[in-house]
Design brief:
Layout: H1 2-27, H2 29-63, H3 69-86, H4 90-100, H5 102-121
Helix pairs in contact: 1-2, 2-3, 2-4, 3-4, 3-5
Length: 130
């Protein structure tokens, strides 16, 4: 897992830079910069809206006396999407937008739940109590 993260953090910036340079050559540097700024601003707006909706559903679950499991994971994914959108680049912006859209966020949530369940069953995750 650590090796995959290391590769991701080393290769992703180079990929982002390469794509920005290619796009800059195709459409020009100012339109490329404008695209990065606009996706960031639009992403922040979308993150804010989705964040409020997630918090609202979380509060409704708590008021109904239910545990908000899916809502918490949705909140984490919205936060991660917002972080991706604040990171300049086309790949991270795409990942951020995908995590902010309810349909694709649902797919990501199901994948994470399945991976977490598998890790729990295989004993790869330990829960500690104080």
């Amino acid at each position: 897992m650590l090796g995959k993260l290391l590769v991701l953090f080393l290769l992703l910036p180079f990929l982002e830079l390469y794509l920005l340079l290619v796009l800059g050559r195709q459409i020009g540097s100012l339109p490329t910069l404008a695209l990065v700024v606009c996706t960031g601003l639009f992403g922040m707006l979308l993150a804010r809206i989705q964040g409020f909706l997630v918090v609202r559903r979380l509060v409704l679950k708590l008021q109904a006396g239910e545990l908000p499991g899916d809502e918490i994971l949705n909140g984490i994914l919205v936060l991660l999407g917002a972080v991706f959108l604040l990171t300049p680049g086309l790949v991270t912006d795409t990942a951020g937008f995908l995590l902010l859209l309810p349909g694709t966020r649902e797919i990501a949530r199901k994948i994470i739940r399945r991976k977490l369940q598998q890790a729990l069953e295989e004993g790869q995750v330990w829960i500690f109590r104080r």
